[in-house]
Amino acid sequence: MKRKENRLFALLVKNYLLFTLVLLFLAGGVYWLWDRQFERLLNPVDWDALLEDYALTEGRYEELDRYLHGAGNGFAVLDETGAELYRAGDMPEPLTPGELACVPFYGDTEYLDAFPEAEGGDVHYRVLRTRLREDGSSEITGDMALDGDFRVLSGALEPSKTVYTPREYAILSGNYPAHGTLYRYEFATTGGVHTLLFCVAPLDEEALARVSRDGWVVWLAALPLYAGALAFFIWRLGRRLRPPLERLRAALDAQARGRRVPVGDCGGVQELQRIGRSLDELSAKLEKSEQERAEMDRERQRMIANISHDLKTPVTVIAGYVDALADGKIPPAEQSRYLAAIRSRTDALTQLINAFHEYSKVDHPQFTLQRRDLDLCEYLREYLAGQYDAIELAGFALEVSIPEEPCPCSLDPFQFGRALDNLMGNALRYNRLGTLLTVTLAVEPGWALLTVADNGEGIPPQRAAAIFEPFVVGSDARSGGGSGLGLSITRRLVELHGGTITLDNRPGEGAAFLIRLPLPQ
C-alpha cells in the first residue's frame, strides 16, 4: 500500500511534538529514578507487601529476599516452638521465648514505652503500655515498675513474669538490636502458627541529606539523554528530507549541464514531491522547446534556401536578358520579345515578394481581422460570381451547392476572400483543363462547413501531410509557378477566424479542402 504523503509543516509539527514528548518522558524517567532512590531511603522495605505475599504462608521464604533493601533490615521465620526456619538480611542472634515475648506485634494499636527513672538515689525502670484510640488520642493501659535488677516491683504486664533480663528490657525499650527495631507477626500455615520476626532499620538521615544535596548530579545525567534524543530527531528528519533533496539537486545539476535526469517519485514530504514533478514537467517542456527551436532553425534555413531559390531564378533570367540587351547582342526585331520576357519575370518576382509580405503580415502577432456580421451564403454567392468568368476562361467547370437559408457569420470579407483566392488559384494552377471544381456549404450545430474540392489528380501523398507548411507546393517541382505560401496563409487566416482547415486528399481522384467556421450562438 502506498504510503500517505506528508506535508512539510505536518512533518515538522509531528516531529516537534514527538521530540517534546520524548523530552517529557526522559525528564519524567529521571525524576522517577531520583524519586525512587529517595523513596527507598524513606521506606527501604515494603513490609506490608512482604506480609501479604503468598510465598510467606506457602513456605517459599527465599522468594521474600527481594523485599530487603538497605543495611539493618532482615527477617527470620520461627515455628510454633520458636525455632528458626529461615533467616535473611541483618538479624540479631536468635531470641529466647522470653525475649520473643517482649517483641511488639507489627501493626498493633498498643505499644510499650520503657525508660529509667531515679527514686531516692536508686535507679528504677518504668514500662508503660499505651493504646491508640480510633480518634487519634491515646490512653495508658498498663504501668509496670522495675528495680535496678529488672525485677517487677508493681503492675506486672504479664502475671507470671516477675523478672526481666537486661536484653529483654532492651527489647522493651527498643534499644535492641542497636541497628533497628524488632517486630513480630504471626501467620497460619499448614504446619501451624508461625512467627515472622523482622528488624526494621531506622531512616538514614545522612543518606537522605546526601541524596537531596547531590540531586543536581542526577539531572546533569539527563544532558546526554537530551543530546541523544536531539541527534535522533535530527537524523530522523534528515532521513526524510535529505534523499529527495539530493535527487532534486542531482536533477538540477544535470539540467545545467544539458542533460535531462527525471526526478520521478523522489519521496519525502508532499512539497518536495510536487517540486520534483514540477521539475520533470519543466524539463520536459524545455526539451520540447529545444526540439521546437531546432525544428524552427531547420525551417528557417529551409525557408531561406527556398526564398533564395525563388528569388534567384527570375533575377538571374532578368540579369541575363538585360546584359544581352546592353551588349547589343539582341537584334532590334527581337528586343520587344526580350523586354516582354523581362516584364513577365518582373511580374513573377513581384508576386513572389507580395506573397512573402502577406505571409509575414498574417503571421505577425499584431495582425488583426476587420470582422463584421454577414450572411455567409450570400457572401459565397457574390465571391463565386466574381470568379466564374476566370474559371470558365481557364477551361474549368464550377459546381456550387449553397443553402437558401441565411447563414449568419462573423468574417473579415477581404481576408477570407484572400483565403478562398489561394484555394481556387491552386486548383486552377495544378489541375488539367476540364477539371470540375465544386464549392459546397453545409450548416452543422454551431459550425459552418465549407468544402472546396476538385476531381483532378490530387496531391502527391508525400506532400499531402505537410501541404499547409510554408514553401510546400502541390507538384513535384517548384517550377509550378507557386511560392508554396498560399496554403500557409490560408490556414493562418482561417485560424484567425476561429476555424480549422483540413485536407481530404484522394490521389488520382482529386483533393478537397474542408473549412470549419464557428457560428454565433
Report on this model:
Among the domains are: 99-176, no CATH class; 368-518, Histidine kinase-like ATPase, C-terminal domain (Heat Shock Protein 90, 2-Layer Sandwich). 47% of the residues lie in helices and 21% in strands. It is built from 14 helices and 15 strands. The strands form four sheets. It has a five-stranded mixed sheet with strand order 10-12-13-15-14. A four-stranded antiparallel sheet has the order 2-1-8-7, with no helix packed on it. A four-stranded antiparallel sheet has the order 3-4-5-6, with no helix packed on it. The radius of gyration is 59 Å and the shape is rod-shaped. The chain starts with 7 loop residues before the first helix and ends with a strand.
CATH architecture of the domain at 368-518: 2-Layer Sandwich
Structural class assignment: alpha+beta
Report the total helices: 14
Which fold name fills CATH's third level, the topology of the domain at 368-518?
Heat Shock Protein 90
Number-wise, the strands total 15
Main sheet, how many strands, which sense, barrel? 5 strands, mixed
The chain-level mean pLDDT equals: 82
Computed over alpha carbons, the radius of gyration is 59 Å
Instruction: Give the CATH class of the domain at 368-518.
Output: Alpha Beta
Beta-strand proportion: 15-25%
- Large-scale geometry: rod-shaped
H/E element string? HHHEEHEEEEHEEHHHHHEHEEHEEHHEE
Strands of the biggest beta sheet: in what spatial order? 10-12-13-15-14
pLDDT < 50 runs, ≥5 residues: 476-480
Q: CATH homologous superfamily of the domain at 368-518?
A: Histidine kinase-like ATPase, C-terminal domain
Please give the alpha-carbon distance between the first and last residues. Answer: 50 Å
Q: Estimate percent helicity.
A: 40-55%
